[in-house]
Automatic annotation (TrEMBL):
This is Arylmalonate decarboxylase. It holds the Pfam family Amdase. It comes from Streptomyces hyaluromycini. InterPro entries: Iso_Racemase_Enz_sf (IPR053714), MaiA/AMDase (IPR026286). It comes from the Bacteria. Signal peptide: none annotated. PANTHER family: BLR3294 PROTEIN. Gene3D superfamilies: 3.40.50.12500.
């Protein structure tokens, strides 16, 4: 397959997100080419107003790909879609896909698609968000029919640092591992959902995959999983990123369609 023939994935990300494209490229490897369009900068806005703005301008931001042929697109911003109901999110993605002429899915809907394919009903939510946004996330999953058995907050900065400051882009691998090992690995078999496309998770999941048999799911991992299946680029066996292979070993391929 020539470079021009490789399936193309469009990714919409917040302007300051340093994580999504590197993780997507690592996850999909040479099976997809990844292209990004970024939400506009919103100086002076509070977090909730910024997220509302992202939803308002999402059709235009997807339109910034112009006439480029895309095979699928994902909205790599979980937080803005927590403002929607799961059903409202589904309708929004369907409308975006109809306008774009190719499948479009939010990271939140990709997670729900993965949960359905995996038969998951119970989650431990690992969140880098401020408490109010974490609760909004919890409400989204519970409205979708999932049970959130535990919430683990992961502040930015080094473990044990004074105070709590929430910024997904500054969460360290060490902080993720410290919080998950202390608060999430014992007591039940719920899947560990690491929410947010801006929190670097791959290095932490590399270690956790060796420590636990529980399902490990992130916003970016779910998007890559969905995108590869949507364009029929998922390959069984030993090829592909080990975290995707780990998921593939648990899923029913027939159930891997879009949610």
């Amino acid at each position: 397959m020539t470079l021009s023939e490789i399936p193309r994935l469009g990714v919409v990300v917040p302007p300051e997100n340093p994580t999504a494209e590197p993780e997507f490229n690592r996850l999909v490897g040479d099976r997809m080419n990844v292209f990004a369009s970024r939400f506009p900068v919103t100086p002076g806005m509070g977090l909730r107003q910024m997220l509302e703005t992202y939803n308002a301008v999402l059709p235009e931001t997807l339109g910034n790909f112009g006439g480029m042929r895309l095979d699928a697109a994902v909205v790599a911003c979980s937080a803005s879609h927590y403002l929607l109901s799961p059903e409202g999110d589904r309708r929004f993605c369907a409308e975006l896909g109809a306008r774009a002429g190719h499948p479009v899915l939010s990271s939140t809907r990709a997670i729900l698609a993965a949960c359905e394919a995996l038969g998951l009903t119970r989650l431990t939510l690992v969140s880098p968000y401020e408490p109010w946004l974490t609760e909004l996330s919890r409400g989204y999953w519970e409205e979708a029919g999932l049970t959130v058995v535990r919430t683990v907050l992961v502040p930015a900065g080094a473990p044990g640092a004074a105070g709590r400051r929430f910024n997904p882009y500054e969460v360290t691998t060490e902080a993720i591992l410290e919080r998950v090992r202390a608060e999430a690995l014992g007591g039940d078999d719920s899947a560990l959902l690491f929410t947010g496309t801006g929190m670097y998770t791959l290095a932490a999941l590399d270690e956790l995959a060796r420590e636990t048999g529980r399902v490990l799911l992130t916003s970016n991992l779910a998007c890559a999983w969905w995108a590869l299946r949507t364009v029929d680029a998922a390959e069984p066996g030993e090829e592909g990123h080990h975290l995707l292979r780990r998921l593939a070993g648990r899923t029913d391929p027939a159930a891997a369609g879009a949610a």
